[in-house]
Design brief:
Shape: globular
Helix content: 55-70%
Order of helices and strands: HHHHEEHEHHHHHHEEH
Structural class: alpha+beta
Distance between the termini: 55 Å
Number of domains: 1
Oligomer: single chain
Number of helices: 12
CATH superfamily: Glutaredoxin
Strand content: 5-15%
CATH topology: Glutaredoxin
CATH architecture: 3-Layer(aba) Sandwich
Strand order of the largest sheet: 1-3-2-4-5
Length: about 230
């Protein structure tokens, strides 16, 4: 493929801001220092309003428990959550209407931005969510290749994209800048320094994000309290 969005002004802007802000170095290794641990609870209303692009949502909008996930498509730990813990959480809590999951993009690097832009181009919330899930499930396939864009395009074609739509999605400067602003604001306002980061009804989750039982220990008391 000749097209390379990583050379467009949008992605060049992102690289400059990554270097200047120092955010990527901390986030990739999962370090945020003491400040990252200081804010254990946030105002739920503020948290749910804190997005520049529409959140992707799984589950009942009236669920008693809301999990807000900040994740990067280039993050192997995020992929582990989506492939190991989420299927069981979905079966037990989300599909039964007890919990909703709000998935918020927190891209850590250019490939993650490319994946987020691609997923955001699907037709509706359900298709966006499905494409996001596929990108996590096949993360090693596309992210581990020297031809990341070629692999992304192969996945996109299976979701009904042609090359024109694919290139237009990854070159969307306005949407890129919104994602960048959202990521930076999440770091500033909610102390999101590493991915994945979770808030459950406004409280930062600090358990094993690959273990559904760790989530259950937080979710079950909240459901009991709300009943």
């Amino acid at each position: 493929m000749k097209f390379n969005p990583l050379q467009t002004p949008a992605f060049a802007l992102g690289r400059r801001q990554f270097v200047q802000g120092g955010l990527i170095a901390a986030a990739v290794v999962g370090l945020g220092g003491p400040a990252a641990l200081a804010q254990q609870t946030v105002d739920t209303e503020k948290l749910l309003a804190g997005h520049e692009v529409p959140d992707l949502v799984l589950g009942n909008p009236d669920a008693k428990v809301t999990i807000v996930e900040f994740a990067s498509l280039s993050c192997p730990h995020c992929a582990a959550f989506h492939t190991e813990a989420l299927p069981k959480l979905k079966e037990k809590y989300i599909d039964t209407g007890k919990v909703r999951l709000v998935m918020r993009d927190h891209p850590l690097n250019d490939p993650a931005f490319a994946g987020s832009l691609l997923a955001r181009c699907a037709d509706d919330n359900d298709k966006k969510v499905r494409l996001m899930m596929v990108l996590y499930e096949r993360q090693r396939y596309w992210l581990g290749s020297p031809d990341i864009l070629g692999r992304l395009f192969e996945i996109a074609k299976q979701a009904g994209f042609n090359q024109q739509k694919f290139e237009a999605c990854l070159s969307d400067q306005a949407k890129y800048e919104k994602l960048l602003k959202q990521r930076n604001r999440s770091a500033d306002e909610f102390n999101v320094r590493g991915t994945p980061s979770f808030f459950i009804n406004g409280t930062r989750f600090q358990g094993d994000f690959t273990d559904p039982e760790a989530f259950a220990k937080v979710i079950d008391p909240l459901l009991k309290e709300a009943s």
